[in-house]
Amino acid sequence: MASRNFYFQLIIRVILIALTALGLAFSVAWQKYLALSFCTILFGAQVYALISFINSTNRKIAYFFDAIRNEDFTLRFPERVAIKSFKELNQSLNRVNGLIQEVHLQLQIREQYYQEILKQASIGIMTYNEKGHILFSNPTLEKLLDHSPLNHIKQLMQVDEKLYHVFKDFQPFERKLFQLSNEREQTQLSLKSTPLTLDGKSLLLVVVQDIHKELDEKETESWVRLIRVLTHEIMNTITPIASISDSIIRYYRNHGRITPLEELEESQIKNTLKGLEVIKEQGGNLMDFVQSYRSLLHVPEPNKTIVRGKELLDKIDVLMSARLHDSEVDFQVGCHPEDLEFFIDEKQIAQVLINLAKNALQSVENIEKGKVRIVAGQDGNGTKYIEVQDNGPGIPPEVMDEIFVPFFTTKSEGTGIGLSLSKRVVQLHGGGIQVRSLPNQETIFRLTFV
């Protein structure tokens, strides 16, 4: 309504100026000098009034936007004015000003709410720009780094010079581990970066987490699992030895005295011989078990060379072909791109792939249309990988966390050291091994290399 009244007043003023100009033209044409003087004065006054009318509105709107830009919501325009259009305009501006003020307050409340969440977060959070100026760091981060306040990443040199270079060279979507040491303790930090754009400026958000406690818990859990498996295996071996030894002792000792040779029966001597053979066999099994443990602990450092992925998989294909002689399993290998290269110890990784391929073939040997694939490739992040895939029954969820524990096995035969040894080999290469399994659909062991 205010804009409509303003529009009507503007039209009326323009029409009056046009009529005055027309009268001015007639006065000149008819040489009416008195009328000419009057029309000239009237024309000038109307033009001045029009300019003042427009400027007053423009200034009012300009003041309004300046106040909004400066977050000054105290500006109020008078609503008791004689001109109706000005009154309605002032009312509209005051109403808009009130709405913007309310939105601004709501945004401030939300910002304070989010700031409080970030302050109370259990992980460290930092945001800094390309020049290294820190825009935000929460108290958790300052506590982790034992430095406050943080205004520039150069201050990290006072904490640890290597840590400063980590932040200085951080790339978007990069993950890093850093061990921070001080006089009191060592802290294992996990760092992850995420790029942000704020007001057209590129920022980097870094999340820092102390994973020392989690690593300790994982290590303790791993030891518990290993000890449980070791205890199970050793007890399975020792129990029959103890039982047989006790039976043999009864043959040769009766009521605390040694049985004379003339009282021994032939069957007792035969049973003694059989018992000693069983003890020898169980002792040999225990020695093999210990030897397997030693082989896990003494994996040699890999002798890395440049290996073409296609040639490696072709060798695995040839080595596994003997096992597929009478089998209907569909076994294939593939490398994409074909010129993909790995910096690895070929013998060690080949043995890992053979072990995984054997497990995959065993899992699908009773499956109709069983398939096993070994695929090498490179993902979008540049990480090179080799996958061993099968469509067997899969790995039950309840044992998924146990499969890499040394000597753990669900098979009736085997030492249970294959997967743990494979994982150790890949770790020595600076990589990792992950498993994903969907029952009766697919199981994938993925070897990743840096």
From TrEMBL:
Start and end residues of each Histidine kinase domain: 229-450
Keywords, in A-Z order: ATP-binding, Kinase, Membrane, Nucleotide-binding, Transferase, Transmembrane, Transmembrane helix, Two-component regulatory system
InterPro entries cross-referenced by the UniProt entry: HATPase_C_sf, HATPase_dom, His_kinase_dom, PAS-like_dom_sf, Sig_transdc_His_kin-like_C
Reactions catalysed, as given in the entry: ATP + protein L-histidine = ADP + protein N-phospho-L-histidine
Biological process terms in GO annotation: phosphorelay signal transduction system
Residues passing through the membrane, by range: 6-26, 33-54
MF terms in GO: ATP binding; protein histidine kinase activity
Domain of life per record: Bacteria
EC number: 2.7.13.3
UniProt KW Isomerase keyword: no
The keyword Phosphoprotein is assigned to this record: no
Pfam families listed in its UniProt record: HATPase_c
The protein's name in its UniProt record: histidine kinase
Organism: Flagellimonas hadalis
Lineage: Bacteria, Pseudomonadati, Bacteroidota, Flavobacteriia, Flavobacteriales
